[in-house]
Amino acid sequence: MRALVFHGPWEMTVEDRPEPVPGPGDALLEIVATGICGSDLHGYTGENGRRHPGQVMGHETVGRVLRDRTGAHRPGTLVTVNPVIGCGGCAACAAGTPQRCPDRRVIGVGREISAAFAERMVAPARNLVPLPEGVPAEIGGLVEPLAVGHHAVRRAALRPQDRVYVVGGGPIGQAVALAARRAGNPGVVVGELDPARRALLTRLGFAAIDPAGPSAAVSSPVAPSATDDPAIPSAGGVVAALGGAADVVIDAVGSARTLQAAFEVSALGARVVLVGMAAPRVEISAYAVSTEERTVIGSFAYGEAEFRDTAAWAGAHAAELEPLIEGRVGLEQAPGTFRALADGTLKASKVLVHPSG
Ligand SMILES: [Zn+2]
Ligand SMILES: [Zn+2]
């Protein structure tokens, strides 16, 4: 089969690879589309060290069942794949939270697994999540990042009255904003440096703000508050856009700078959810946590039920979610697309690779 193989920083080629062979608990899938994730890009450049030479990446995928050795899914069934594989035997796995399994593996991250930037892939049958009948297939490729956003919002224990600031308006920030609205809190403000991403967020119905702008100008589907005074510093602009200090900040970037911003715009006692993974280590203000009683909450992936619920929700909101897909390429164009996304010449938020397209 044809597959996109990572060979080291900035090196990717399309090659023939051996057909994947399903084991007793596995299914074989024909891949329809796989999203390029920010973590794939940071792996591709070598920045995060979470991808390895020789690996076939791809964890945001949708495909059709060719063969399920467990018999649980009929051939032809359209499925997305929960890429988190737990050991199956520990307390976290028993609770349906394999993202907390100490022996977890993740399809598309683990180097030993040939993943979804390929014509075909093997996955444990129990990780397949069928999509509702009639849903456009590509929506299945969005479920994984949407589930990341849903889990982050659940980790925040979001209440409708909370003032919510989302740091970063890329695919995960977009997913967080959508999940907050899904959870009954539609008034989130998203901070994003890139104007094209702010425009996408506005189209999705969210208030988007440039956190670096002198006036932290708001582009909002609702009337902006009085933030166009250039004297207002960025944190003040964010607070003005929210109508007060944030009760919840969800950091979808994850750097020292963004965590510091999260503290600056949030109220004493706020919850700060760290879901972005830009930096493996950060130095943060201890007093912003201790003397001001902020809670810093980690969020990784999703539980099994959260992933399934998000697949069902995405299926019911396909038209609303379609604008998230900003590019589509075949496998042969994928190396060039990775390069262009990583060096910034291509600005698209979410690009789907169609391995047979
Ligand atoms: Zn991802
Ligand atoms: Zn486990």
What would you say this structure looks like, in words?
It is a single chain. With 357 residues, the protein is α/β, with parallel strands linked by helices. The protein folds into 2 domains: 2-130 and 317-354, Medium-chain alcohol dehydrogenases, catalytic domain (Quinone Oxidoreductase, Chain A, domain 1, Alpha-Beta Complex), CATH 3.90.180; 148-298, Rossmann fold (3-Layer(aba) Sandwich). It has helices spanning 38-44, 91-94, 143-155, 171-182, 195-203, 234-242, 256-265, 286-289, 304-316, 318-321, 334-343; strands spanning 2-8, 11-16, 26-35, 60-68, 78-81, 84-85, 105-106, 120-124, 128-130, 164-167, 189-191, 207-209, 218-219, 246-251, 266-274, 295-298, 325-330, 350-354. Strands 3, 4, 5, 8, 9, 17 and 18 form a 7-stranded mixed sheet that branches. A 7-stranded mixed sheet has the order 13-12-11-10-14-15-16, sandwiched between helices. The longest helix is centred in the middle third of the chain and has 13 residues, at 143-155. Bound molecules: zinc ion (2 copies).
